[in-house]
Amino acid sequence: MELRQLEAFAATLSTGSVTGAARLLDRSQPAISRSIQELEAQIGYALFTRSGPRVTPTTQGFLLYQDVERALGSLRQIRTRADEIARGDGAPMRLAATFAMSSGLVPLALKRVADRHGAGHTQLRSMPAEQVVHAVLTGTAQIGVSSLPLEHRGLCVNWIGQSRCVVALAEHDPLAALEVVPLAALGGRPLVTLSNPYRLRRRLDAAMVRIGKDVSARGPGGLIETNSSINAMSAVRAGLGVSVLEPVTAYGAPMQGVAVRPLDTEIPYFFGVITPQASPLEEPVAALAEALADAAAALLPAFVRHDASAHASLLQSIYDGEVAAEPESPQ
């Protein structure tokens, strides 16, 4: 495979036409078509179905695009790094974080680092929790921030944070007038919830079952599932329901028209900072890890910082659906 073929394929899929890809890459339309045809001949299957000037990716084309885009992204990073080396610049900090952390916590930590050590070059990528783990394990990221569990071999957990989940309400909702919202008051309401059953969603469902609301049964109140707390807050603002959320997005990325209130029932939220176990912790990475802890302590009510050694007991509390054991070091 040649680079020009992969670029032609990616640009055509992105723009939806050979004409658009030709304009994007500053090549002729015949050159784009020829590159794609050569690539299809090499791999043995069609990447697009053609209908005049428009093209539609095949199922195989979509699957291949995910890897091609990653490869092209890595190449762009190499080009950028080559230019930085020519200028004498240091290597960028590569950070992977879940959507909640990248919007609610990471910017606050980066600001602390910039204030203390000066601004630097950071590459931040947002992704699901499982992909954050993968990015750190493979060295794509030097540091990651994700919700628990984080018990994978090859990871070094630097510290674990704990806070309490909150409820997001439309600002005109009568419950928004309360300082603390009873979880039981949400029992008959339309619900907006997170979709990943292997992380926070497990504890949210268990808490709702305790008040007699079976989330999976939906019922007349309705149910919206999403993979992003920002999406959940947007749905709440639109009047589609209430949402019990992790506190990082709720407090770190507040949304106009949405009221955030504590619950009378503790639903713990755990997250951690991870680095590759095989790599020494360089000073800039260590500084960012501490800045993340400082930012979390300043942002989150009732924040608790646990030592990495507490990971096993905290995981047990997650799997058992119980509140964690006594914290080691309250902030």
Give a verbal description of the structure:
This is LysR family transcriptional regulator. Belongs to the LysR transcriptional regulatory family. Keywords: DNA-binding, Transcription, Transcription regulation. With 331 residues, this protein is α+β, with helices and mostly antiparallel strands. The protein folds into three domains: 3-87, Arc Repressor Mutant, subunit A (Orthogonal Bundle); 93-161 and 271-330, Periplasmic binding protein-like II (D-Maltodextrin-Binding Protein, domain 2); 166-262, D-Maltodextrin-Binding Protein, domain 2, CATH 3.40.190. The protein is built from twelve helices and 14 strands. The strands form four sheets. The protein has a seven-stranded mixed beta sheet, sandwiched between helices. The protein has a three-stranded antiparallel beta sheet with strand order 10-7-11. Helix 1 (3-15) crosses helix 2 and helix 1 crosses helix 3. The chain is globular. 34% of the residues are buried.
Task: Write the SSE topology.
Layout (H helix, E strand, L loop, with lengths): L2 H13 L2 H8 L3 H15 L4 E4 L2 E4 L1 H29 L5 E5 L1 H6 L1 H12 L4 E5 L2 H9 L5 E5 L7 E10 L1 E5 L20 E4 L5 H11 L12 E4 L2 H9 L5 E3 L1 H6 L5 E5 L5 E9 L6 H17 L4 E4 L3 H10 L8 E2 L1
Parallel strand pairs: 3-4, 3-5, 8-9
Antiparallel strand pairs: 1-2, 5-12, 6-12, 6-13, 7-10, 7-11, 13-14
Helix pairs in contact: 1-2, 1-3, 1-4, 2-3, 6-11
The named CATH superfamily of the largest domain? Periplasmic binding protein-like II
**Uncertain spans, ≥5 residues at pLDDT below 50?**
322-331
> Number of helical runs?
12
One letter per element, helices H and strands E, the order comes to: HHHEEHEHHEHEEEEHEHEHEEHEHE
What Rg, in angstroms, do the CA atoms define? 23 Å
What's the total count of β strands? 14
**Sheet with most strands: strand arrangement:** 4-3-5-12-6-13-14
How far apart the termini lie comes to: 54 Å
CATH architecture of the largest domain: 3-Layer(aba) Sandwich
Give the domain tally: 3
Give the oligomer, counting copies of the same chain as homo and different chains as hetero.
single chain
**What name does CATH use for the topology of the largest domain?**
D-Maltodextrin-Binding Protein, domain 2
What overall form do the CA principal axes indicate? Answer: globular
Strand content: 15-25%
Task: State the helical fraction.
Answer: 40-55%
By secondary-structure content and strand pairing, the structural class works out as alpha+beta
Family: Belongs to the LysR transcriptional regulatory family.
Protein name: LysR family transcriptional regulator
Organism: Pigmentiphaga aceris
Keywords: DNA-binding, Transcription, Transcription regulation
